[in-house]
Specification:
The complex is a heterodimer of chains A (487) and B (499). Chain A has 487 residues and is α+β, with helices and mostly antiparallel strands. Chain A has helices spanning 53-65, 163-179, 219-238, 284-292, 298-309, 313-321, 323-336, 339-357, 368-379, 385-397, 402-408, 417-430, 432-440, 443-460, 467-482; strands at residues 4-14, 69-70, 73-74, 77-80, 90-93, 100-108, 114-126, 130-132, 141-143, 150-156, 192-201, 211-216, 246-251, 256-262, 272-273, 280-281. Helices cover 41% and strands 19% of the residues of chain A. The N and C termini of chain A lie far apart (74 Å). In chain B, strand 10 and strand 11 (451-459) form a beta hairpin. In chain B, helix 2 runs antiparallel to helix 3 (51-66), helix 5 runs parallel beside helix 6 (182-188) and helix 7 packs antiparallel against helix 15 (464-477). Classes of the chains: A alpha+beta (487), B alpha/beta (499). The A-B interface holds A 39, 42-51, 78, 80, 82, 84, 87-90, 142, 268, 270-272, 275-278 and B 84-85, 91, 93, 98, 101, 103-105, 107, 202-207, 209-211, 237-241, 317-318, 320-321, 323-327, 329-331, 341, 345, 365, 368-370, 373, 377.
């Protein structure tokens, strides 16, 4: 039977503010546990929250970027529940009057069609601390460094109809928040986390019961979690069973999910307006000021990359969807003077290495200037494409920049035609049988056979001869033999 | 003035004596500490007595007064209600939950008094988490009313009020969520002011109901309250609900004539339930003010009857959330050998909180629950707006509103302990001002059965200066504020214990 998949996303994005949403503590990731937790972050009695204006500014930037309405009088609510990493026994969040309402994000499907995904709202809230289970035997440690880090929770309408669409949407969102500079994009550190609401129905039928799978912190995990959940629901229904409304947890390593709690077990969060915080009034002027200073968004960048650098839609799309990758590309393109080659290296070798090592572009061991320099050496014929791979490898391992690797490994390409010519003549002379075959062969097959001689010449030059020149000179010399000209 | 004993002096008189070098701060501080040492065992006003640090602070104050620049308050001893966090000094909020809690920070109010050089004698007893009107809910035992130790001092700032009445401190800080400064002030025959919501920073003050809580001064006279409020008031960036407006000099215009002042007398404050003798004292006070040229204007606050029910939804709702942080995880009471997380939560809270606190957490949790929110919390907020509107309309006609602070003088211990609603009605006249966020003050206006009763002066938003002016004028023509009970003899306590 055919099933229609209905997906809505809730995305938690950690904002890139220097200090927390309601206290002055730093938000830097990776500090010693509880060194970035003030009395407020620890929920000490008598402490009071003071809102961080920067968090509002960044949330408004996001709202403007997705053509949303900005709430002029937004309020904070308390979401009450007990958990050890929740220091006050409630999370300060927004419910009735979130800062951002009714926006949309356009995604481009693989067949080129564009689909608009509606954003119901985005609200500001504080992150919780972190429970540490590993270092303590039969006990749990708690690190409150993360407690109070500002988040925006972006809630989509259930407009997505496949795991692929959900991933495209998530990546687009990633591009927007990183381009705006409101999120560092470090997904492995939890800077962006997804909750997926999934249900299935017969095409055109009423909506099915949905489940929520929480806390997915990579695009891959999210895609896998959706695929698995869709299949689980199909299996249940086709076996005559029912989908239960519940919250599920997905294990990215085992690719299995399990029920966390059913609807009946869900908390009654007892939301009510936070009496410690006054309504936040946002003036039109303030919004317009932010609108004027909004940085270039992925959509505009895509268009510019295609026009300015003559990139294909595919290449431009990838390079424009990640702010830092786009920035990296533009440095390489400008410094090397060849955008096409720059794009090829970044989208090919560089991304492959980053993906296989799980690194993000910020942690890339090759600086954009160094990659540009390497490309310059290809363009000025100092090195061949093959040598460039070796240079790239050296740079990745931290052996130095392009020029120093070229000189230390003696990778200079030989482009002196007289040197190459004498090598070519030498190879022709010591391979009389192959030359004979070549001469007897039909023209159409000759170019294939040429490869053997090119290989021999390259080998004799210890790989340093310019392959283009080798090709050209070889052809010339062999043509002379065809025409019975003495070498 | 010189004929008075040190402990009989007002803060203004102590400042005068210090400025005249009649006494040193050390002498004054030692005098009060001696009285505390003898009398606290009778009245139980203090949870923590800070002898060592108080003497140290007094010496520093004396040095400052000898050498450098100093403010008037330098060397004046006061006490803080144990709801204000004090750095490196135990802060219990009257609860077993915080019996072991030592904050690493000072409340803004505490910091401001320290900055002025005030000497802190100790932390005063209070109803647990400020929930109570009799001081009987304190984990550290009830405070006794110095006028009659068989009766309650009122609450929740009962320790502060009784300590002033017993003259073991000249002034103390208090907090008022539904009457917690004014009601004990009335029952102990002292002066106490709850400022406009937002006038005094709430930072470092342990929250009961955040939208109602407000700190204020308690002392012998309106003038002393003015001196204290001058220090306490002011915008604090650490409390985003504090008001960013100028703090006037509250003593400057305190002696202005009240000729022509329009006093609103709400008919709803003189109805059934008001003790006849109390009513007489209040009406007497009003006619005294009339003699000073004030004009009495009968008014109506038609939604007054909604105040108590609305309060007992809103305050517990906020409290249920505010008190969630006391979970045994990071500080405060934790039960022995918890089996698991849930066991730790439930037993720590069951053991750490007293009955009244639990009752209010239950009520508040219920009011905010899914399906009940609209019927209770939202309705209560609507009632709150109506109550506020009553006052806004009234203040278009009058300058201040005056009525009784409480319906009755101090009642005996146990009289209302088992009937929460009866106890809640103690605050029937004080609660509305908290809901509206208005300033209100109680000053003594008579004795009923040898026990003090008070009038409440309610002013418009941020008009504390006018309230203090009216109170001070009243106190210049009357002497109720100069009446103090005799020191209770230790023998009588022994006798009471034997009984």
């Amino acid at each position: 039977m055919e099933w229609e998949i209905v997906i809505g996303l809730e995305v938690h994005v950690q904002l890139a503010t220097k200090s927390k949403i309601f206290s002055g503590s730093s938000t830097t990731f990776g500090s010693k546990p509880n060194t970035q937790a003030s009395a407020l972050d620890l929920g000490m009695p008598g402490t009071l929250p003071t809102p961080n204006e920067e968090a509002f500014r960044q949330a408004i930037m996001f709202g403007l970027a997705i053509n949303a309405d900005i709430e002029k009088c937004s309020i904070f609510e308390r979401k009450n529940y007990f958990y050890p990493d929740l220091p006050k026994g409630y999370q300060t969040t927004q419910l009735e009057k979130p800062i951002v309402r009714s926006g949309n994000i356009v995604i481009e499907l693989s067949d080129g069609t564009r689909k608009s995904i509606r954003i119901h709202h985005a609200h500001l809230e504080e992150d919780a601390g972190k429970s540490l289970h590993e270092e303590f035997q039969e006990m749990t440690g708690i690190d409150f460094n993360r407690a109070g880090t500002p988040l925006i929770e972006i809630v989509s309408e259930p407009d997505l109809s496949s795991a692929e669409e959900a991933t495209l949407f998530a990546k687009k969102l990633y591009g927007i928040v990183t381009s705006l500079g409101i999120c560092d994009g470090e997904m492995a550190q939890g800077s962006m986390r997804f909750d997926v609401n999934v249900s299935i129905r017969k095409p055109g039928g009423t909506l099915g019961t949905r489940t929520e799978t929480k806390n997915l912190n990579s695009f891959r995990f999210m895609e896998d979690a959706i695929d698995i959940e869709v299949q689980r629901q199909i299996d249940l229904i086709e076996d005559g069973k029912k989908v239960v409304q519940e919250t599920r947890l997905f294990n990215g390593e085992t690719k299995k999910s399990k029920s966390l709690r059913s609807k009946e077990e869900a908390n009654d969060y007892r939301y009510f307006p936070c009496p410690d915080l006054l309504p936040v009034i946002i003036e039109d002027e303030y919004i317009e000021e932010i609108r004027r200073t909004l940085p270039e968004l992925p959509e505009a960048k895509l268009k510019r990359f295609k026009e300015q650098y003559s990139l294909s839609n595919y290449d431009a799309n990838i390079l424009s969807s990640d702010q830092l990758l786009g920035q990296y590309f533009e440095v390489v393109a400008k410094k090397s003077g060849d955008a096409k080659i720059a794009a090829n290296w970044i989208l090919g070798e560089l991304l492959a290495r980053l993906n296989s090592t799980g690194l993000t572009i910020t942690l890339c061991p090759i600086k954009s200037e160094d990659l540009a320099e390497m490309i310059c050496r290809i363009l000025d014929n100092t090195i061949s494409g093959k040598m460039a791979k070796e240079v790239f490898d050296g740079m990745w391992k931290g052996d130095g920049n392009a020029d120093s690797i070229i000189s230390s490994r003696g990778l200079k390409q030989v482009s002196d035609s007289s040197v190459i010519e004498s090598l070519v003549i030498h190879i022709i002379k010591i391979n009389p049988n192959q030359v004979d075959d070549y001469l007897k062969a039909e023209e159409a097959k000759r170019s294939k056979m040429l490869g053997y001689f090119v290989g021999q010449v390259m080998k004799a030059s210890k790989g340093q001869a310019n392959p283009k020149q080798v090709n050209k000179i070889l052809r010339g010399q062999l043509n002379k033999l065809i025409n019975n000209i003495e070498l | 003035m010189g004929s008075k004993d040190i402990h009989e002096k007002t803060i203004a008189e102590i400042i005068f004596a210090l400025n005249a070098r009649e006494f040193s701060s050390l002498e004054i501080t030692q005098h009060f500490l001696n009285r505390i040492k003898t009398l606290n065992s009778v009245y139980n006003c203090f949870i923590t007595i800070c002898e060592e640090s108080a003497l140290k602070q007094a010496k520093i104050a004396d040095q400052k007064r000898m050498t450098g620049e100093f403010s008037d308050f330098c060397g004046v001893p006061i006490a803080h209600k144990d709801i204000f966090c004090t750095k490196d000094l135990r802060t219990t909020c009257g609860s077993k939950m915080l019996d072991n809690f030592i904050p690493p920070y000072d409340a803004t109010v505490v910091e401001k008094f320290s900055f002025e050089g005030a000497v802190v004698l100790g932390k005063t007893n209070m109803d647990e988490f400020a929930m109570g009107s009799s001081n009987e809910t304190s984990y550290f035992g009830a405070v006794k009313n110095p006028w009659d130790i068989k009766t309650v001092p009122g609450g929740s700032s009962g320790g502060s009020a009784a300590a002033i009445a017993a003259q073991i401190t000249p002034g103390a800080t208090g907090t008022d969520t539904g009457g917690s400064i004014r009601q004990p002030a009335a029952l102990c025959g002292i002066s106490g002011l709850k400022p406009t919501y937002g006038r005094v920073s709430r930072w470092g003050m342990i929250a009961f109901a955040s939208s109602l809580d407000q700190a204020g001064p308690m002392a012998k006279t309106a003038e002393d309250c003015a001196l204290m409020l001058k220090i306490m008031a002011g915008y604090d960036a650490k409390d985003s609900t504090s008001a960013n407006i100028i703090t006037p000099d509250y003593t400057e215009k305190i002696s202005r004539s009240i000729n022509g002042l329009k006093i609103g007398v709400p008919k709803e404050y003189f109805q059934d339930g008001l003790n006849f003798e109390t009513e007489k004292s209040v009406l007497d006070a009003l006619s005294q003010l009339e003699k000073q040229g004030a004009i009495l204007v009968p008014i109506s606050l038609p939604h007054s009857h909604l105040a108590v029910p609305a309060y007992y939804v809103i305050a517990p709702a906020e409290a249920s959330s505010n008190l969630s942080r006391f979970d045994g995880v990071r500080y405060g009471h934790r039960c022995e050998n918890p089996k698991d997380l849930n066991d730790m939560y439930t037993r720590s809270r069951a053991e750490g909180f007293g009955d009244e606190v639990k009752r209010r957490i239950l009520v508040g949790t219920y009011c905010l629950s899914a399906g009940y929110y609209d019927a209770y919390y939202r309705k209560a907020q609507q009632a709150r707006r109506l109550i506020k509107q009553d006052f806004v309309s009234a203040f278009n006609e009058v300058d201040v509103i005056i009525g009784p602070t409480c319906p009755n003088p101090a009642f005996e211990f146990g009289a209302k302990k088992n009937d929460p609603v009866e106890m809640y009605l103690e605050d029937i006249f004080t609660i509305a001002t908290n809901l509206a966020g208005l300033p209100g003050m109680s000053i003594p206006c008579g004795l009923v059965d040898k026990k003090p009763v008070g009038i409440q002066i309610i002013g418009n938003y941020f008009r504390e200066a006018l309230i203090l002016n009216v109170a001070h004028q009243y106190q210049t023509i009357t002497d109720w504020h100069q009446n103090y009970p005799k020191d209770e003899k230790i023998e009588s306590i022994r006798k009471m214990r034997l009984e």
